[in-house]
Amino acid sequence: MSTNVDTLLEALPYIKDFHGRTVVIKYGGAAMREESLREAFATDVVLLKYVGLKPVVVHGGGPEITEHMERLGLEVRFHEGLRVSNEETVEVARMVLLGKLNTDIVQRLNRHGQPAVGLSGQDGSLFEVAPVANAEQVGFVGTIERVDVDVIHHIAADYIPVIASSAADREGHPYNVNADEAAGKVAAALGAYKAIFLTDVVGWLADPEDEGSLITRARVDEVEAKLGDVGGGMRPKLTACVDAINGGGQSAHIVDGRRPHSLLLELFTDAGIGTMVTS
Ligand code: ADP
Ligand code: MG
């Protein structure tokens, strides 16, 4: 029994500290694909809302988009970590992100007891994107140039906002956007207290081949110094951590979403489980 009480007592100062604070959660990977992990995630996010935090969920959907493209016989290609996107690719991505994944997440949060509202980057002109620098190679992939969080403030007052990483440029042409980038920029624009990135590795690894080489803590300047050497999907994640901190966040965390309730463990226990980035 005493261990249960200890766990509760350990969480109390965190609950107090977090009351009324905004936390941005980038949702993806196994936590979004495995049924038991989806349930654990929804339980966690709803609990955050119950104890007085303002959770904001931002999600991608890479594997599902790939799956649907293959079903439709479309070619799937990546260039330097970015999905090579023609008009058809962007259309499928929007259909999967908004028509399927976003509504699934919203329904699940509703069912767990806290009403959620789904948004895309187009809703309330949340994101404005411009083509990425290497658009000649990757096509309609956008980088977020402007975030208008007014719509999030309205929704977060009462609901849990669930944001899909789809967006359009100033003329209304749709683009694919990396969900980590979207989460980092939303966190910065909201001045979120914390940003948490769920992924399928234990965190930022000094050696990507060695799960034992977890970097548990890093300052923004240390991350920036090493960013050039980081590849794959970890680079946009670390860039997003830097954005979140520079926007006024207290810390940004990369945690293992394959582990059930990793969100609660990272937020409410003394022993963090992934990589924590601070200023
Ligand atoms: P998601 O954005 O869905 O969490 P990504 O595949 O985009 O997943 O990004 C995470 C991936 O980045 C890891 O699974 C790993 O393969 C890759 N990666 C590259 N370099 C590193 C590193 N230094 N530490 C950890 N993961 C790395
Ligand atoms: Mg990614």
Order of helices and strands: HEHHEHEEHEEHEHEEEHEEHHEHE
Q: Which structural class matches the secondary elements?
A: alpha/beta
With strands numbered from the N-terminus, the spatial order across the biggest sheet is 5-8-2-1-11-13-14-12
The distinct bound ligands, ions and cofactors come out as: adenosine-5'-diphosphate, magnesium ion
User: Taking all residues together, what is the mean pLDDT?
Assistant: 95
Indicate the overall shape.
globular
The fraction of residues in strands falls at 15-25%
Briefly, what is this?
This protein is α/β, with parallel strands linked by helices and 279 residues long. The chain is built from 11 helices and 14 strands.
Task: Present the secondary structure layout.
Layout: H1 2-18, E1 22-27, H2 30-33, H3 35-50, E2 54-59, H4 62-71, E3 78-79, E4 82-83, H5 87-111, E5 116-119, E6 127-131, H6 135-138, E7 142-147, H7 150-156, E8 160-164, E9 166-168, E10 174-176, H8 179-190, E11 194-199, E12 217-219, H9 220-226, H10 234-246, E13 251-256, H11 262-268, E14 275-278
Parallel strand pairs: 1-2, 1-11, 2-8, 5-8, 11-13, 12-14
Antiparallel strand pairs: 3-4, 6-7, 9-10, 13-14
Helix pairs in contact: 4-5, 8-10
